[in-house]
Amino acid sequence: MIPVTKTFLPPRQEYEKYLQQIWKTGWVTNNGELATGLEEKLEDYLGVPHLQLLSSGTIALQIALKVMDVKGEVITTPFSYVATTSSILWENCHPVFVDIKPKSLTINADKIEAAITPETTAIVATHIYGIPCEVEKIQSIAYEHDLKVIYDAAHAFGVKLDGKPLVSFGDLSALSFHATKLFHTVEGGALVTDDEALAEKIFLSKTFGHKYNEHIQLGINGKNSELHAAMGHCVLPRVDDLIEKRKQISRAYIEHLDTDNLQFPHVPANVKYNYGYFPVIFESEKIALDVVEALENKDIHPRRYFYPSLNELPYLSNMQLCPISSDISTRILCLPIYQELEIQSVKDIAELINLVVTD
Ligand SMILES: *Cc1c(COP(=O)(O)O)cnc(C)c1O
To answer: Among the atoms of ligand 1, which is closest to the Cα of residue 180?
Structure first.
């Protein structure tokens, strides 16, 4: 069986060393030394001043909206994982979708201004597959119209734009450390900011809003445990190797796929990429579904990431049109990419796909 992704698990003895430490201290959660130590290591690795470890990427998005006091309408991308939209809805805000650019698949910044109304308070955009949004354009629009900018950076771990950490743009960036992501803590996430006061507010938000008996603000439980942090300590030293391996797999796909009949999203040259996903855009939904069938017959499981286009979610109150996202979401697939995937399997997958697309 070849799944779309496979969680990287470190040697068990290494994780067990951390377990021994946890058993010795008896400290299992509530911002213990493994969690705070991991925050420091992640700040170093990512090159950011303040990182708050959280229990998931979704809770990171929700806390971001809360601490930025986002209300009313939120301009957002239709091409992302459902959590980007669901967290906006969960915080009782109204998502206003702006269509994506056909090459980068990120929100089309040139169309944002037309969607702004007096109710708009924020922009929530996703660096989809680790491809940067048009951060400069978005920043100047936000400045002009006094909007908050929150990035869903769930795919952006380690990505750099012109040498700068991609997670350093916007007011806040939300990361996911879910088991399916490049760097993981089994479940987990984080918020990144360069504003120390905001980092403190996030800390309070994730710890019920109080310090001992002093209740300072409204909070929730968004902490992560020592057992999760321990996994992060084991995975982080290997993340550069994980990226390198994925780069080799990506190269092998590009080399062996028949690129006359399919496209890849465009990663600009000024981006240091993380190869977290390997998305392929086919010419039609029928071809994409034929590819799924051909691969599944061989027990290979690509995924329809991301489908459906989020403006089409059935529980939205009104239907907004995003023709580019709706079209691309029907014919894009993510191919298997993970540490142990062999180059021979990549070649086999490419050959199976070439047979379908050249039919
Ligand atoms: C995975 C993901 C999330 C949610 O993160 P969790 O840690 O699973 O809650 C949010 N947005 C995007 C784009 C994701 O891929």
So the answer is: 1
Question: Residues 55, 60, 64, 67: what is their CA dihedral angle, to the nearest 10 degrees?
Answer: 0
Three-state DSSP state, 357: helix
Domain range for 254: 239-357
Q: Domain check: are 272 and 170 in the same one?
A: no
**Which of 187, 219, 237 is at the close of a domain?**
237
Report the CATH number that the domain containing residue 103 is assigned in CATH.
3.40.640.10
Q: What is the pLDDT of residues 55-105, one digit of tens each?
A: 999 999 999 999 999 999 999 999 999 999 999 999 999 999 999 999 999
- For the chain, what is the domain count? 2
Q: What is the pLDDT of residues 284-319, one digit of tens each?
A: 999 999 999 999 999 999 999 999 999 999 999 888
Cβ-Cβ contacts under 8 Å for 298 (sequence gap 6 or more):
348, 352
Burial call 70-99: b when 16+ CB within 10 Å, e when fewer: beebbbbbbbbbebbbbbbbebebbbbbbb
Residue 236 backbone phi and psi in degrees, to 5: -55, -45
Contact 125, 142 (CB under 8 A): no
Kindly give the number of the ligand 1 atom that is closest to the alpha carbon of 128.
Answer: 13
**How would you class 252 by CB atoms within 10 Å of its CB: exposed for 0-12, middle for 13-18, buried for 19 or more?**
buried
183-196 average pLDDT score? 98
**What CATH number is associated with residue 281?**
3.90.1150.10
Tokens 């771990």 correspond to 157
Region of 86 (left: φ > 0; alpha: ψ -120 to 50; beta: rest) is alpha
What sections of the chain are H helices per DSSP? 12-25, 33-46, 57-67, 82-90, 135-145, 196-206, 226-235, 239-256, 285-296, 323-331, 343-357
CA of 213 to the centre of ligand 1 (A): 34
Write the CA distances from 318 to 55, 90, 95, 325, 330, integer angstroms: 31, 16, 10, 17, 21
Query: 258 CA distance to ligand 1 centroid (A)?
Result: 31
**CB 224 near ligand 1, within 6 Å:** no
Q: The tokens of 75 are what?
A: 């301009």
